[in-house]
Specification:
Layout: E1 8-9, E2 16-17, H1 22-30, E3 36-40, E4 46-51, H2 52-62, E5 83-85, H3 90-97, E6 102-106, E7 112-117, H4 118-126
């Protein structure tokens, strides 16, 4: 499996910066259709994934009016299992995608380069 044939590249995706204010990220996600979104640092390296649940917990814990005091980095899920190298083998992709809607793909410097979705894998295997 050529991962690049199913990769959705970073420049076509929406993602958050770990230093983004939490209130702005919540406002953005309220208008989006995403349930989870990749998070990168200022150098473009993968930090983790922020999900609706992560944002909801932050709102419940701190109150929406206090979210400006926090950054996305404060709530991000640093699940390393949601990240794969661009040289990953098919078996590992299949194992990891079972529990997720998408996997974040990084290069050997840990820079985020895009995602592969469960749907893109299924469509690839269908052909």
């Amino acid at each position: 499996m050529n991962i690049f044939s199913i990769l959705i590249p970073k420049h076509t995706l929406t993602y958050l910066n770990a230093n983004d204010p939490l209130d702005q990220a919540v406002a953005f996600l309220l208008g989006a259709t995403y349930t989870a979104i990749p998070v990168v640092d200022d150098q473009g390296r993968y930090v983790g994934i922020a999900s609706e649940g992560d944002f909801l917990r932050a709102v419940m814990e701190h109150g929406r009016e206090n979210l400006a005091k926090y950054k996305v980095a404060d709530i991000v899920n640093k699940d390393e299992g949601a990240k794969v190298l661009n040289t990953v083998e098919k078996d590992e992709i299949m194992e990891r995608i079972l529990d997720r809607n998408f996997l974040c793909v990084v290069d050997d410097r840990d820079c985020f380069i895009g995602i592969i979705t469960r749907k893109s894998i299924i469509l690839y295997l269908k052909n």
